[in-house]
Amino acid sequence: MTARKIPLAGVIGSPVAHSRSPHIHRHWLKAHGIEGYYIPMDVGHDDLARVIRTLPRMGFVGVNITIPHKQAVLDVADQVTDRATLIGAANTLIFRKDGKIHADNTDGYGFIENLRSGAPHWQPEAGPAVVLGAGGAARAVLASLCDAGVPEILLTNRTRARAENLQEEFGKRVQVVDWVQAANIIDIAHLVVNTTSLGMVGKPELRVPLDGLGKQHVVTDLVYAPLKTRLLQVAEEAGATTVDGLGMLLHQAVPAFERWFGVRPEVDAATRAAALE
Ligand code: NAP
User: How confident is the model over 12-24, as pLDDT tens digits?
Assistant: First the structure.
């Protein structure tokens, strides 16, 4: 008789207690009747490589990686997908049967899937996108917008040099605009994306003037605590189509769950409710 193996997965970050990922994956495990566990693990930088290398020997099939390890984990992996290399970070590790650690980034996939499901009429080629912020999340957003065929991306960030670095990496389709000029580019955009942490609980409000927003815009915020940020509130009042950031978190989890547990889960109302529990 072969021993029954219970698949384990989890999320590694520091801090990690606030993560919604355990709620999402545990919901799907239960919904699909899979006998498995998803565990939050607070791991410091110095222990990262050792912990990751030990997990497959304990029955782990993979893990999510979150702040502050998304970049560092690329050095631990044996194989890195092209999209994780382009984004410069990984959020998903798959522990393969041959012992290799495979790193991928599903944030861009989650971003686009959320946008497509929340704003089905959005057409990438229809006009420029304004992206606020040039941190880690912006990299995944830029990669997926380029991939989707957005013709022009107007990138603005408080620290201009960070936006210029991204322009160098992502090429001519990305134009850098001064942070103080952000309000002036919203008028001409088709899509507006906030990738900064502004508007998040405990962070300052996004103070960019939003008078230019109207019903022609699709507006999405990566911040999902609160679910309805000031940006989304103002956009909604102006008649724009709004898409909140929780869906991105849910959709980025789909490919990981499928790779680890062999079932492609649905992002539905019950998944959203579970994430918010
Ligand atoms: P990050 O790498 O630390 O980048 C933070 C960004 O916010 C930078 O562009 C930074 O500008 C800007 N910012 C911070 N404080 C600011 C201020 N006072 N004024 C103007 N700009 C300011 O963080 P990240 O990983 O990209 O995450 C950004 C946000 O996205 C977070 O709220 C995170 O929770 C959210 N997120 C959501 C999802 C999802 O699934 N929905 C996924 C990933 C991230 P500077 O460069 O000038 O510092």
Answer: 999 999 999 999 9
Is the per-residue pLDDT at 1 higher than 70? no
Ligand 1 centroid distance, CA of 34 (Å):
35
Q: How confident is the model at residue 190 (pLDDT cuts 50, 70, 90)?
A: very high
Q: Kindly tell me the burial class for residue 175, based on how many C-beta atoms sit within 10 Å of its own C-beta (0-12, 13-18, 19 or more).
A: middle
- At residue 62, φ and ψ (nearest 5 deg) are 165, 175
Known catalytic residue: 70? Answer: yes
Region of residue 62 (left: phi > 0; alpha: psi -120 to 50; beta: else): left
Question: Within 6 Å (CB) of ligand 1, which residues are found?
Answer: 107, 110, 133-138, 157-159, 162, 195-198, 200, 204, 222-224, 245, 248-249, 252
What confidence tens digit (pLDDT) does each residue in 141-179 have?
Answer: 999 999 999 999 999 999 999 999 999 999 999 999 999
Q: Taking Cα atoms as reference points, which of 220, 222, 227, 223 lies closest to residue 276? A: 227
Which atom of ligand 1 is the closest one to the Cα of 134? 9
Nearest CA to ligand 1 atom 1: 135
pLDDT at 45 over 80: yes
Mean pLDDT within 183-189: 93
Per DSSP bridges, beta strands 60-65 and 92-95 are: antiparallel
Report how far residue 38's alpha carbon sits from residue 157's, in angstroms, rounded to the nearest whole number.
35
CA of 253 from ligand 1 middle (Å) equals 20
The residue with tokens 């599903």 is: 106
